[in-house]
Q: What sequence folds into this?
C-alpha cells in the first residue's frame, strides 16, 4: 500500500498499460476476454482515482502527489507529475468516462473489437497524462499522443462520413499544437527548463509574452473549440462512434480549457489579461452562435455537438472573467458538461444502435416506446438546460454571477444563450419523445443492462452535484485563489 | 609528416573486399545461392568485430579511423545487417533476382560507405562515394527481369549521380586552386585566418551540389521517385536510409573539419534549400498512389528535415541532424520491410488504395505500420517526433524561430500522406484476402525497428548523447590530440 500511495498518479496513469499488453497479444477468438480485461483494468483505475480524490489535501494550494524523476537530462526535462485543485476532479472524470465508454460499447462495437478497447485504454493514458504532467515536454507528448487513438476511433468505428471527419479533426488539432510546440521550445531556450513550477515565476513581458500566449492559445482554442475554429467539432462528434463522442465531449475538449487554466493564464498573466476582452467576446459569440446553430440542426448528434460549442463558451467566459466565483463555475461547468453531454451522446448512441438513424424526424413518440430511456434523456436535457436541482444550474449560475462583477453586458448576452439553450433542447425533446409515435421506431427494444448501468452513474452525479456541490467546489477553492492571486501581482 | 601504412585500422574493409571478390569470382560454382546471404551475414558480423578491436589511427593521410568513423560505421552496419536479412526474404519471392552478385554489390557499396566515413581528403571521399553509388545503379538495373521500368530508374539515378560527380569534381578543383590542397586538415590550415573566401565558398557550393544529388535536396531530387520505385525494395531502403546517412555525415565532417570558416555561411545558404525540400517533398507526397513513390517523396522531405540541423552551423545542430538521420534510418528500414512483406504476396498491394482493409487480414502488421506512419509524421510518442523536436530546439536556440515555424507548418502538410495510408489500412474494407506467413526475414527487421522507434521516442537521451559525444570527442581528438 505504501508503494501505491507514493506513486498513486503513476499507477493511475500507467495502469491501463497492464490491460493493453495482454490485449495486444490476444488472438482474434478472445474478443470477449479482451473486453473483460479492459473493463477490469478501468474499474481498478477508476477505484484508484477515487482513492486519489479522498487522499487530497484541501488546504494545500500547491501540487500534491508529486513525482519527479529525470527523463532527458540534456534537455533538463523531467517525468514530473502532480495534481492540484484545478486538475484533480478531471482525473476521476476521465477514468469514469472511459469506464462507461467500455460498458456502453459492450454490444455495439462488433468489428475490430480488440483494437477498439486498446484505443480506448490508450486514450485514457494520454488524457490522464496530459492532465497531471507538469513538465511542458511531457505534457506535449501526451497531448499529441492523444491524437493517435482518437484518429483511429473516429475513423474506424465512426459513421458514414467518418474519414473526412477524422482527417479534419487530426489536421486541425495537429495544426494548433505545433504552434504550442514552438512556444514550448522558445520557453525552454529563454529559461532553460520545461519545469512548469519553475516557469511560473519567470519574468516575461512585451511582445514575446503575447506571441507565446497566442501560440498556446491557438492550440487550446482549437481543442475547446472556440468560435471560429470550432468547425472540426460538429463533424468529429457527429461521425464518431458513441464512445468516441463521449470521450471527445466528455474529456477531450475540456483539455483545451484546462490548458488555459494550467498554462495559458499562469505562465503569461499579462498577455492573458490583455487578450481577455477578445476571448470573452469570442466566448459570447460561441454561446449565441452555438445555440442558434442548434436550432437549425436536423441531426441528433450534430445538435448536441453544437450545444457543446455553446456550453464551452460558458466555460471560457468563466475563465477569462478573472473572478474566483466565475472560475469555480467554469471548472464545475467543465465537469458538468462532461457528465451531461457525455450522457446525452450515450443516449443518442443507444437509439442509434437500434435504428441506425440520427435524423430527428426519424423519431417521434419515443417516450411511449422506451419510457425508462425517455426519463433518463429528460433529466439530462434538463441538466443541459441548467434547471435548478441539476448540476448544470450550479455551473452556469456561478459563471454568470462571477462575470456579473466584471462585465454586466456580457452576462446579458450569455443569459440569452441560456434561453436559446432551453429552446433547442426542449424542442428536441418534444420532437423526439412526444407527438405521435413514428412508425419507424415502433417496438424498439428497451434499455439493456449495460446501457442502464452506463447511464446510472451519470444520473447520480447530475443530482449529486446539483443538490450538494460543496465537496466539489471545496477541491478547487484554494487552488483558484492561489492562481488568481498570482495573476494580480 | 610521415605516411603510416597501418593495416590494422582498415581490417574490416579488407575483409569485406575479400568477401565481395570471392562472391564475384566463385558465384558460378554454387548451385544454391543461399550461400551468399550467409557469407554476407557472417562477414558483417566479423567486420563489426574487427571494427570493435581496430585501433584509432590513419592509413596514409587519406584514411582515418576515429570516433566519428567507428560509431557511424556501426550504425551503417546495423542498417545493412537488417537490409541483408530483408533481402534474403525478398529474393526468395523474387527468384529472378537471386544471384550471388546481389550481395556482392551490396558489400561493395558498403565498402564505399565505410571508406567515405573514414576519408580524410576530397579525392578519397569522391572515389568512395562513387564506389558506394555504382553498385547501387547496377542493383537497380538488376531488377530489369521483373520490372522493365527499372532500367529507366537506374539510368536516371546514374545520370543524376554523374551530374553530381561533375559538380563535385568542379568544386574540388576550385577548392584546390584556392587552398592548394585536397586534404581536410591542410584545407583547414590554409583557411585559418584567411579573409578572402569567395573561391573556396564557390568551390564548396559545387561540392554541396554534388552531395545534394545523393541527399536529394531540391532541386536535385527528381531522380528519387523513379529510382525508388524501380529498385528492388531492400535496395530502395538502402538508398533512402544508408546512403543519405553516410553522405550527410560526410558533409558534416567537411564542414566541421575542413571548411570551418564557411559553416555559418553555408547554413544561411541552406535555409531556402532545406525549406523548399521539406515543402516540395511533403506536397508531392500527398497525391501519390504508389506506396514506394509516396515514401520516396517523404524521403525527400525527411532529408530536408535532417538539413535543418545544418542551418545553425554548430556542433549541436550537426549532432541533431545525425540523430534525425539515425531515427530516419530505423523508420525507413522498418517501413520498407513492411513493403517487402506486401510485395512478396501481391505486387499491387504496393498501391495505397489496394491496402484497403489490411487490418482485417493482418492486424499485427497493420499495427506496426501504424507505428512507422505516425513516426514518419512526427507524432509522439515515437522516435520521429523526438528527432524533429531536437531539430526545432537547435533552430530556436540559434534564433531561427521563423525557420522552425515554417518547418513545423510543413510537417502538418506532411502528416497527410501517412494518415492516408492508415486510412486505407484501417478505415476501408475489403472482400479480398490473401494468406501470408510471418517469416523471420520480415518480422526480425520489422520488430527490431518498431521497438527502437518506440524506445527512442520514449527515451531518446542515450541516442542523442551518443551522437553528440561522438562528434565532440572526434573534434577534440582531431584538433587537440594530446
A:
Amino acid at each position: 500500500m505504501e508503494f501505491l500511495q507514493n506513486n498513486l498518479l503513476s499507477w493511475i496513469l500507467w495502469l491501463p498499460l497492464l490491460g493493453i499488453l495482454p490485449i495486444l497479444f490476444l488472438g482474434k477468438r478472445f474478443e470477449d476476454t479482451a473486453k473483460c480485461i479492459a473493463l477490469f483494468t478501468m474499474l481498478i483505475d477508476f477505484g484508484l482515482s477515487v482513492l486519489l480524490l479522498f487522499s487530497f489535501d484541501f488546504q494545500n494550494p500547491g501540487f500534491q502527489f508529486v513525482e519527479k524523476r529525470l527523463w532527458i537530462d540534456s534537455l533538463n526535462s523531467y517525468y514530473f507529475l502532480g495534481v492540484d485543485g484545478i486538475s484533480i476532479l478531471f482525473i476521476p472524470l476521465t477514468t469514469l468516462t472511459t469506464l462507461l465508454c467500455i460498458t456502453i460499447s459492450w454490444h455495439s462495437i462488433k468489428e475490430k473489437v480488440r483494437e477498439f478497447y486498446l484505443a480506448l485504454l490508450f486514450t485514457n493514458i494520454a488524457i490522464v497524462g496530459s492532465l497531471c504532467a507538469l513538465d511542458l515536454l511531457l505534457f506535449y507528448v501526451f497531448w499529441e499522443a492523444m491524437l493517435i487513438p482518437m484518429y483511429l476511433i473516429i475513423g474506424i468505428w465512426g459513421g458514414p462520413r467518418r474519414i473526412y471527419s477524422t482527417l479534419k479533426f487530426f489536421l486541425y488539432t495537429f495544426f494548433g499544437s505545433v504552434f504550442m510546440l514552438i512556444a514550448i521550445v522558445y520557453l525552454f531556450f529563454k529559461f532553460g527548463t520545461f519545469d512548469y513550477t519553475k516557469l511560473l515565476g519567470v519574468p516575461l513581458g512585451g511582445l514575446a509574452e503575447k506571441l507565446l500566449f497566442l501560440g498556446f492559445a491557438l492550440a487550446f482554442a482549437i481543442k475547446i473549440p472556440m468560435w471560429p475554429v470550432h468547425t472540426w467539432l460538429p463533424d468529429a462528434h457527429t461521425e464518431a462512434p458513441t464512445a468516441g463522442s463521449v470521450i471527445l465531449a466528455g474529456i477531450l475538449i475540456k483539455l483545451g480549457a484546462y490548458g488555459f487554466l494550467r498554462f495559458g493564464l499562469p505562465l503569461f498573466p499579462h498577455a492573458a489579461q490583455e487578450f481577455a476582452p477578445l476571448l470573452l467576446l469570442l466566448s459570447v459569440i460561441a454561446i449565441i452562435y452555438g445555440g442558434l446553430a442548434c436550432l437549425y440542426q436536423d441531426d441528433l448528434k450534430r445538435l448536441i455537438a453544437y450545444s457543446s460549442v455553446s456550453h464551452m463558451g460558458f466555460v471560457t467566459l468563466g475563465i477569462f472573467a478573472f473572478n474566483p466565483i466565475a472560475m469555480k463555475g467554469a471548472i464545475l461547468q467543465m465537469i458538468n458538461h462532461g457528465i451531461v453531454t457525455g450522457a446525452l451522446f450515450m443516449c443518442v448512441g443507444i437509439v442509434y444502435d437500434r435504428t441506425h438513424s440520427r435524423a430527428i424526424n426519424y423519431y417521434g413518440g419515443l417516450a411511449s416506446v422506451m419510457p425508462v430511456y425517455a426519463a433518463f434523456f429528460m433529466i439530462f436535457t434538463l441538466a443541459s438546460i441548467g434547471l435548478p436541482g441539476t448540476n448544470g444550474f450550479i455551473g452556469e449560475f456561478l459563471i454568470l454571477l462571477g462575470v456579473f462583477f466584471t462585465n454586466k453586458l456580457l452576462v446579458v448576452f450569455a443569459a440569452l444563450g441560456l434561453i436559446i439553450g432551453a429552446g433547442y433542447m426542449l424542442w428536441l425533446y418534444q420532437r423526439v419523445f412526444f407527438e405521435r409515435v413514428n412508425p419507424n421506431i415502433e417496438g424498439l427494444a428497451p434499455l439493456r443492462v449495460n446501457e442502464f448501468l452506463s447511464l446510472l452513474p451519470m444520473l447520480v452525479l447530475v443530482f449529486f452535484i446539483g443538490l450538494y456541490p460543496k465537496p466539489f467546489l471545496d477541491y478547487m477553492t484554494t487552488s483558484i485563489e492561489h492562481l488568481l492571486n498570482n495573476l494580480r501581482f | 609528416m610521415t605516411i603510416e601504412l597501418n593495416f590494422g585500422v582498415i581490417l574490416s574493409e579488407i575483409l569485406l573486399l575479400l568477401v565481395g571478390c570471392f562472391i564475384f569470382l566463385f558465384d558460378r560454382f554454387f548451385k544454391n545461392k543461399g550461400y551468399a546471404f550467409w557469407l554476407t551475414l557472417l562477414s558483417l558480423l566479423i567486420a563489426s568485430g574487427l571494427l570493435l578491436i581496430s585501433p584509432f589511427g590513419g592509413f596514409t593521410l587519406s584514411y582515418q579511423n576515429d570516433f566519428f568513423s567507428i560509431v557511424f560505421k556501426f550504425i551503417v552496419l546495423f542498417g545493412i545487417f537488417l537490409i541483408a536479412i530483408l533481402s534474403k526474404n525478398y529474393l526468395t519471392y523474387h527468384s529472378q533476382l537471386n544471384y550471388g552478385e546481389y550481395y556482392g554489390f551490396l558489400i561493395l557499396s558498403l565498402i564505399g560507405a565505410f571508406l567515405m566515413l573514414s576519408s580524410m581528403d576530397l579525392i578519397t571521399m569522391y572515389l568512395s562515394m562513387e564506389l558506394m553509388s555504382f553498385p547501387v545503379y547496377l542493383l537497380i538495373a538488376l531488377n530489369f527481369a521483373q520490372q522493365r521500368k527499372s532500367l529507366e530508374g537506374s539510368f536516371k539515378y546514374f545520370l543524376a549521380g554523374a551530374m553530381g560527380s561533375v559538380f563535385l569534381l568542379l568544386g574540388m578543383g576550385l577548392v584546390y586552386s584556392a587552398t592548394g590542397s585536397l586534404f581536410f586538415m591542410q584545407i583547414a590550415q590554409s583557411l585559418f585566418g584567411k579573409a578572402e573566401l569567395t573561391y573556396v565558398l564557390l568551390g564548396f557550393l559545387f561540392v554541396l551540389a554534388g552531395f545534394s544529388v545523393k541527399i536529394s535536396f531540391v532541386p536535385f531530387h527528381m531522380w528519387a521517385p523513379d529510382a525508388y520505385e524501380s529498385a528492388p525494395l531492400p535496395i530502395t531502403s538502402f538508398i533512402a536510409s544508408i546512403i543519405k546517412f553516410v553522405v550527410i555525415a560526410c558533409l558534416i565532417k567537411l564542414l566541421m573539419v575542413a571548411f570551418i570558416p564557411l559553416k555559418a555561411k553555408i547554413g544561411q545558404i541552406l535555409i531556402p534549400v532545406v525549406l523548399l525540400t521539406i515543402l516540395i517533398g511533403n506536397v508531392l507526397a500527398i497525391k501519390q498512389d504508389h506506396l514506394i513513390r509516396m515514401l520516396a517523396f517523404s524521403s525527400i522531405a525527411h532529408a530536408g528535415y535532417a538539413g535543418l540541423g545544418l542551418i545553425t552551423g554548430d556542433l549541436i545542430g550537426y549532432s541533431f541532424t545525425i540523430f534525425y538521420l539515425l531515427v530516419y534510418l530505423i523508420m525507413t528500414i522498418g517501413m520498407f520491410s513492411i513493403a517487402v512483406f506486401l510485395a512478396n504476396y501481391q505486387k499491387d498491394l504496393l498501391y495505397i488504395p489496394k491496402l484497403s482493409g489490411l487490418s482485417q487480414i493482418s492486424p499485427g502488421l497493420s499495427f506496426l505500420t501504424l507505428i512507422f506512419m505516425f513516426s514518419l509524421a512526427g507524432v509522439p510518442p515515437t522516435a520521429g517526433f523526438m528527432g524533429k523536436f531536437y531539430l526545432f530546439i537547435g533552430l530556436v536556440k540559434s534564433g531561427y524561430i521563423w525557420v522552425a515555424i515554417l518547418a513545423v507548418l510543413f510537417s502538418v502538410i506532411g502528416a497527410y500522406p501517412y494518415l492516408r495510408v492508415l486510412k486505407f489500412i484501417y478505415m476501408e474494407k475489403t472482400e479480398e484476402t490473401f494468406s501470408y506467413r510471418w517469416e523471420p526475414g520480415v518480422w526480425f527487421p520489422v520488430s527490431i525497428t518498431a521497438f527502437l522507434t518506440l524506445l527512442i521516442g520514449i527515451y531518446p537521451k542515450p541516442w542523442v548523447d551518443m551522437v553528440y559525444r561522438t562528434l565532440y570527442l572526434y573534434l577534440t581528438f582531431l584538433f587537440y590530440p594530446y
In short: The beta strands of chain B are 57-59, 63-65.
